[in-house]
Design brief:
alpha+beta; seven-stranded mixed β-sheet; two-stranded antiparallel ribbon
Length: 176
């Protein structure tokens, strides 16, 4: 598994989204691109998490932070997630490959049947991860999990990034 380090270049990322092709290198935010890797349609915690992001999407846009949510789900499941979770503004990427997940250091799991919401887990999928990438495509901050629980809250991220931008706070955790 790859471990990304702050202040170092992140892997190239080109994905299909519900709004068309998307490339990390084509993004031009003033401050950050936030990549939110989620488990997929089968995950009720992901639904609540992305609904929280949806509520704050205008705040991220005002803060010049580009946002993309990504999963290994196929297009049909991504469309179902977007519709059932009422995601009007959060763009969903789909078909994230095993190689892409590994390049970003995400943990992977094997499907175990139906979840508590009655949706079948895919045979394999990635566990959650959140990455803030600077416009120069270096990593600023990351959080990777082996479980769907206890994810960073988007309101706290917004508050922290206000401080980061105002104080030119450096990326931390760069040492081996």
């Amino acid at each position: 598994m790859n471990v990304l380090k702050p202040r170092q270049a992140v892997p190239a990322l080109e994905v299909a989204t519900l709004k068309g092709p998307w490339s990390l290198s084509a993004q031009a935010p003033d401050h950050f691109t936030m990549l939110v890797f989620y488990r997929g349609l089968h995950c009720p915690i992901c639904a609540k998490y992305l609904q929280e992001l949806e509520k704050l999407s205008a705040n991220f846009e005002q803060a010049s932070i580009t946002v993309l949510a990504l999963s290994s789900d196929d297009k049909e499941r991504a469309q179902q997630s977007s519709g059932e979770w009422n995601l009007q503004n959060v763009n969903l990427a789909y078909d994230v490959s095993v190689e892409q997940a590994r390049a970003w250091g995400l943990h992977r799991s094997a499907g175990k049947g139906k979840t508590s919401v009655g949706i079948e887990e895919p045979a394999e999928f990635s566990e959650p991860g959140l990455f803030l990438v600077r416009p120069d495509e270096t990593l600023y901050w990351s959080q990777i999990s082996t479980m769907p629980f206890a994810r960073p809250h988007f309101k706290e991220i917004l508050g922290a990034l206000g401080f980061v931008v105002a104080n030119d706070y450096p990326a931390r955790g760069e040492l081996d």
